[in-house]
Design goal:
alpha+beta; six-stranded mixed sheet; 4 helices; tt1808, chain A; 158 residues
Length: 158
């Protein structure tokens, strides 16, 4: 199965959980709690309020070498958005990809997703932990703060 088929399959519409594809085209499902959505909403608001231009994307499907991965929240510059705007899944990653961790996420899974996003052109990957703490990464490793959003808080309360 490819991402276009997933998006158009009638039995997969309106599912109450997040889905992705692995490198074999198999659907991977991850249930999320309400607080996960609350973090997505707050992240979207903070990104939009801190930077003019660009687009905030929620549940952003990104084509990777290991299937379609879905960033919980992402930010794409106007230039990058012009490239990906009409795609079913992003052929290049937005500049910022953010993962809000769920109980089912493992360290290895998140490390792999970070690398996959960087391989597709992301400049930063942020990880939001269940307590609202953030870890910021660029292709070189962990950073104290975001370069693209230097005033973004290291912690948010929900």
């Amino acid at each position: 199965m490819n991402w276009q088929e997933v998006c158009e399959h009638p039995s997969l519409q309106d599912l109450p959980f997040k889905i992705e594809l692995n490198e074999r085209g198999e659907i991977v499902m991850a249930p999320v709690k309400v607080v996960h959505s609350a973090y997505q909403g707050e992240l979207s608001f903070l990104l939009r309020s801190q930077r003019q231009g660009g687009n905030v994307l929620v549940e952003c499907a990104i084509h990777t070498a290991k299937g379609t991965k879905v960033a919980d929240v992402a930010w794409a510059s106007d230039a990058r958005f012009a490239t990906i705007r009409n795609e079913t899944e992003c052929s290049i990653a937005p500049e910022v990809c953010i993962e809000v961790l769920s109980l089912s996420n493992t360290d290895d899974e998140i490390a792999e997703k970070r690398q996959l996003y960087f391989d597709q052109g992301a400049q930063e990957v942020w990880i939001c932990h269940g307590d609202g703490d953030f870890h910021f990464y660029d292709a070189e490793g962990r950073r104290e703060q975001s370069v693209l959003f230097p005033d973004f808080p290291r912690h948010i309360d929900i």
